[in-house]
Design goal:
By secondary structure, this protein is an alpha/beta fold. The chain contains 17 helices and 14 strands.
Length: about 425
């Protein structure tokens, strides 16, 4: 028998193994200043492509004013208690009604957090007799929700409708044995690749198979569709998507989430989603701020139009310069490159230190060895100048990568500890 903590002290995990050299730079970096397209990193201004502030609302003067007034009016503690017990208010119900109308559903339920909220919703929706069918590249929050399920679950290859149907066939046979039902889970937009889930094709399978469909549209809400109602509006299949989930983080620049669908099912969730029943209600200051954001989104498409101007300028510019950005059909902009950890870290440092561009990079073990993905998130807050500077930087950095200029035997020590900024090595 060993001490529970011994393993953790010896092995920090696949990402944590680089903590002493990467913390504060490659991992857990600290951006400072007003949230926007330009912020400070380690004292220097950078053009930032790592904020999911799609509509640029997070620092809009009207939003900041509404948030400040709501905080002054209510504080951050009001209401106290879970909504079922003592934390329900007219404002919570008003927000739910307006969200439901916006995404063309009968009702919606506000959730305190996106990650734990959708996990708990999945847990409530399925019993041990039910079967889950899900996309192989589903977000971690969906995977963790599926892990809570004590019944059968079948994974299909990412956006592969033929394999989805194959898993539906397996699920149908199993449901006939267990007496349960089938829940299909997919995403409106996949946050790493930027590709939309094939919602239209999945809903078409309802003609052959009996199932209900839940989509996580965190990256589509506000950014896709004629009104900004999301990926299912974009694809013309809102009526066939049974449950629509999204967060307030990406387009609305706040905290929290919601799930929308038939009134009877939303009422069931209100009384059975454990992460809400046993948690304090979302603060009124946040709720009132969300009402302001939603009203601004509904009043004009100007924010979404500016977002897509910037998306098209960045993505077209990258493609014109020979970059592989995959099959993205959303604002999420991946840049696929060849290389390993040393090359990735060298390129990140060069882009940050010499070109003053801050964007996220993904390497092994998140993706296979030999691959690098830079993930850029254009927003309505970016300017044409931001885009043009970034395109020139990537063009020059790609030449260095191809020439082997970033090759190194190991990753450099850029952690706060390594630089002697704080702590001990």
């Amino acid at each position: 028998m060993t001490d529970l903590f011994a393993r953790m002290e010896k092995d920090q995990g696949p990402l944590g193994q680089h903590l002493k050299r990467a913390h504060g730079y490659f991992s857990f970096p600290k951006l400072e200043g007003e949230l926007g397209s330009r912020m400070k990193f380690r004292g220097k201004e950078k053009i930032v492509w790592s904020l999911n502030n799609y509509l640029g609302l997070v620092n809009h003067p009207e939003v900041r004013k509404a948030d400040a007034e709501a905080a002054a009016k209510y504080g951050l503690g009001n209401p106290m208690g879970a909504r079922m017990m003592s934390g329900n208010t007219d404002l919570h119900e008003e927000l739910e009604a307006k969200l439901a109308k916006f995404v063309s559903r009968e009702d919606s339920m506000v959730l305190n957090f996106g990650y734990q909220g959708v996990m708990s919703c999945i847990d409530a929706l399925v019993s041990r007799h039910d079967i889950i069918v899900y996309d192989g590249e589903a977000h971690a929050c969906l995977i963790d929700g599926i892990r809570l399920h004590i019944g059968y679950s079948y994974k299909y290859k990412h956006n592969d409708i033929a394999d989805c149907e194959k898993q539906l066939q397996r699920a149908t046979k199993m449901a006939e044995k267990t007496g349960g039902g089938i829940l299909v889970i997919t995403e409106g937009v996949y946050g790493m690749s930027g590709t939309q889930g094939k919602l239209k094709e999945i809903t078409a399978l309802k003609k052959k198979y009996a199932f209900r469909l839940l989509i996580d549209d965190a990256h589509g809400f506000g950014a896709l569709g004629a009104t900004g109602a999301g990926a299912d509006e974009e694809q013309g299949c809102q009526a066939e998507v049974d449950l629509y989930f999204s967060t307030f983080v990406k387009s609305m620049g706040s905290i929290g989430a919601f799930i929308a669908g038939p009134k009877s099912i939303i009422n069931f969730l209100r009384y059975n989603v454990r992460s809400q029943i046993f948690a304090k209600s979302l603060p009124l200051a946040v709720v009132e701020g969300m009402l302001k954001r939603l009203a601004m989104m509904q009043a004009t498409t100007a924010f979404k139009d500016k977002l897509w101007h910037n998306v098209n300028r960045l993505q077209n510019g990258l493609k014109e310069r020979g970059f592989d950005i995959g099959d993205t059909n959303s604002p999420v902009t991946p840049v696929y490159l060849k290389g390993d950890l040393p090359e990735a870290t060298g390129m990140v440092m060069d882009i940050r230190e010499n070109y003053n561009i801050f964007c996220s990079v993904v390497v092994f073990p998140v993706i296979p060895k030999g691959q690098i993905i830079f993930r850029l998130i254009p927003t309505a807050a970016h300017s044409d100048e931001d885009t043009d500077i970034t395109l020139r930087a990537f063009e020059e950095a790609k030449k260095k990568l191809d020439s082997g200029a970033y090759h190194a035997d190991d990753i450099p020590d850029m952690s706060e500890v390594g630089l002697g900024q704080k702590g001990e090595s």
